[in-house]
Amino acid sequence: MSGSSRKRERAANAAKGKTATAVKEKAATAVKEKAPEKTAVAVKEKAASAPPANPVILSPANEQKKKQVIQILTSISEDTSVPRNIRRAANEAITSMEDEKIEIVERASNGISVLDEISQDPNCPLYARTRIWNAVSVLETIRD
């Protein structure tokens, strides 16, 4: 855009009662609104082009332990008397346990680290802390 066309555009906006900052703000919001669409589309395209992940085959014992831990963590995450940050961490641990792209030992390790951190929270009720420790002890028994 040349200097004279910018001057004309500014003069036209001024005649309409628009200030330069209002025009800039409108342009900035338009860019912000379009940006998430592009990133979401890019993520979807990237996910669609990725080859399907090979699911990790679990031993029956590890599968049962995984289900037991998920059941314990689900009961914590659905308990409204447990603080929100602890319920959120329990959901995070559930998500990490259900991630089929990662080996079961790594998933257990990730779950242990998340649960260990929240078990030390002073706001954690005692009964929830006991359940968390129970889940950690089950996760510690998971082997290759």
- The total count of helices amounts to 6
Q: N- to C-terminal separation?
A: 64 Å
Measured as a percent range, the helix fraction is: over 70%
Q: What integer is the average pLDDT?
A: 78
Give the CATH H-level superfamily of the largest domain.
Ta0600-like
Q: What structural class is derived from the secondary structure elements?
A: mainly alpha
DSSP E strands, number: 0
Brief account:
The protein is 74% helix and 0% strand.
Q: What topology does this entry show?
A:
Elements: H1 3-15, H2 20-49, H3 60-77, H4 84-98, H5 104-119, H6 126-140
Helix pairs in contact: 3-4, 3-6, 4-5, 5-6
How would you describe this structure to a colleague?
The protein is mostly helical. The chain folds into two domains: 47 residues; 81 residues, Ta0600-like (de novo design (two linked rop proteins)). The protein contains six helices and no strands. α3 packs antiparallel against α4, α3 runs antiparallel to α6 and α4 runs antiparallel to α5. The longest helix has 30 residues. About 8% of the residues have low confidence.
